[in-house]
């Protein structure tokens, strides 16, 4: 029997994993979730000696049951190869008494590569399995890192096209250059005059637009999503939490069965949700600690039980977390409602119309696995500064948010469980903010002048991803207003 997937907003339709990956979003606007979360069928003791690829297979075979072993292994081999600059794929680095799970060794030096190097392969395999004839058009909204990772993953992949929308003034210079210099005959990049939430809402509206879907089909196209609403992105992310635990065990840092805490710098709630899935699948995780920047809508939610996006949107030095509508929270809401699709649909409707909703007492009680914190801009910079001067380790701004929250959590809770921090980006990607935090004397330096300095202070090699953009040609200059996204997509696809 294959594991089925259903919408968070509707009990009536179930689909297979490959159908869910292909569709991206359910027709009712809900997100696909597995009807139950299976347990891992290999023991932690066995996992201990597995490499990353083998671990990924152990996880994915439980959740993508309609793929054959050969199909899954082929996707995994194509994804986790020499595109990563370390054989370990996701090294676990001990700094002081904290473990940093470095998820930024892929092609675009952010953790999005962990899922987006495999998604194109899962998607094209899904298309074949389901005899989909249309060309797949990947529509993506990005707060900076998803865009490049998706472009790199889908560039020149047969049977696909990709269009990325990013907020014109909401990403770092390195992030922007990475996107607008992307090569490939099937890629388009559009800067929108708005923020990430505008981009994400615009993309979601196109997915939900049945008229548009019909028009696309008439021209031989269908949409799918590379955002973390696609279950094909979430599931591969479960693997690195399993891997992290197995490495702690292998390195003798913990006893078999001893729990770990994970601290995740959070935006769209995809990464931390993957950790929650890992816990349900049998990884000994105590607390899931959700770290926010000044856009602390999630911190407030965990504190009060009310989600409220009606607030000022703050541009921070951790732009990939500048998000007020965390899409994947819907999957958690669904789980804590006791898998009540009606209740989930009602709350999501309230979010859409009023920008806010409140969960019930019963639901709040089911959030006990989580803790939450946030870091201000000054605290984020302080964390980079202090960690560097104490240990020599240089981390990026997103990781620094989690690092600060981790310390605060330890201090205030007294919980001494070992902590693994999801380290989500290379400091090279946010070199200006990182170096200014290390030493204020860099505040007036040019962004690219600081790259050799970062190399010097951190003692790490400049990644290829950065080297490449220094001289690459700008290929994409399209911009559009928030209310012109659909028109822009039609223009690109030459519909009408
Ligand atoms: C996307 C991103 C995040 C947030 O991850 P979510 O899964 O959206 O919560 C954090 N840090 C970096 C560097 C990112 O690119």
TrEMBL record:
E.C. no: 4.2.3.1
Entry keyword annotation includes Lyase: yes
Keywords per UniProt: Lyase, Pyridoxal phosphate
Threonine synthase N-terminal domain segment(s): 4-80
Sequence ranges assigned to domain Tryptophan synthase beta chain-like PALP in this UniProt record: 101-420
Cofactor: pyridoxal 5'-phosphate
Top-level class of the enzyme under EC nomenclature: lyase
MF term (GO), any: threonine synthase activity
Family affiliation: Belongs to the threonine synthase family.
Protein name as it appears in the record: Threonine synthase
Taxonomic source organism: Dorea acetigenes
